[in-house]
Amino acid sequence: MTGKDLFRLRLKHHLKFFRRLQRVAIDWAVIIYIILPILFVFFLHYNSWWSLEADWLHSVNEINLALVIGFLLLLGFQHSFLHQADVLYLWQKKSLIRKLIRYRLQYYLVISFIRTVILILILSPILLLYLEWGPIHIVLFGGVSYLLHNLANALMRDLKVYQYRWTRALSYVGLYAVGSSVLFISTTTLGSLCSLILLVSINIFYLNLASKLKPKFYKEIELDANQRSKLTHIILAQSTYVGAPEFLAESPSRTRKKPWLFPNSRKIFNGYLPESGYREVYFKSLLRNRNWVLLYVQIIGVGLFGILTFPNVFKVLFWVGMLMLTGNLLKSYWGKVMTHRFIDLFNWKKMNMQPVAKQSFLLGMAPAWLILSVALGFKTLGIWGILFIPLIGCVLSRIIVRYIVSKI
């Protein structure tokens, strides 16, 4: 097997992973209620950029542009396209290492070029109409952004592989400061040309220097597994049971000996019935899990943003979509809790779990439908909407919960 064959094989595995993730995460409900409304609103706003109707864009200046693009250029990740089974094979045939590194670098340069072109095309009305740049200046600025993106991501990956955590944190701040400064200098045509020549020289020098470093394959594989685990966690709303092992998905420095909520594990429901026990286990586990609570808050935040910015028709669709997403989040965590090893430690009474799940989901959805319904009512009908829309939201949440519980 040559280096090219190994790269192609691992690239197929990489793309297959993302295809599986896409098929699971994006279904018809996500497309109809989230993706299509967001795209529709984006194109409406984007059309206003070209027609000079977006008044807020008149306040955009070169400093703001450099700071925003500098942050966007730091986003990204260079995959190693390696599995643990490949390490021994590569050390036996060291001639393949350089070829594998070259092929994955070429792949990343192509992907980075596509991302930069999309970014410049999105920003083109701002650059052409509001900042009054010429086409040549925009092309030079795009070249500077492309080279800066490649250099910054290569440096960030090598820092993760070879340096300590405190060194990486300081280096990221320095990269952002230097990158934003270079982009600000490139807001003139002469500055863009000088920055382009300088970045070409620095990229060539750094690539030659990086090629002489001793590879740390196991560290690179660990970074890839960590990245896949985090991505899977975000998209599928799962925790460490999906993706990489637990030590790769959760940082020990972020854990506490006692949780913020219910540190002494006191009762939160009256009575000693089995139903109360299941609900107590569910809610204590949910509220003590910071990642899931943060995801719940993020759904409410995204819902408020959509309700406040979308047209009235899409406000309602987005409101329904966010309530459905909240219900599915609670359902996913229910499955996580009910299949946990803790449940198997005790001889729980056999019972119909659907009524327990229904009561738990109704209680769990209450903050979401109340906040989003109040916001929707106020934006659409004013004070009267605050009185009537929450009632509709309560009924809708019950319908959603009944449908979700029927699928358990």
UniProtKB/TrEMBL annotation:
Kindly give the Pfam families that the UniProt entry links to this protein.
EcsB
Please indicate if the UniProt record lists Transmembrane helix as a keyword: yes
Q: Does the keyword rRNA-binding apply?
A: no
Its Gene Ontology cellular component terms are: membrane
- Entry keywords, A to Z: Membrane, Transmembrane, Transmembrane helix
Membrane-crossing residue ranges in chain numbering: 21-43, 63-84, 105-130, 136-154, 166-184, 190-209, 292-310, 316-335, 356-376, 382-405
| Name of the featured protein | Uncharacterized protein
> What organism does the UniProt record list as the source?
Filobacillus milosensis
Higher taxonomy: Bacteria, Bacillati, Bacillota, Bacilli, Bacillales
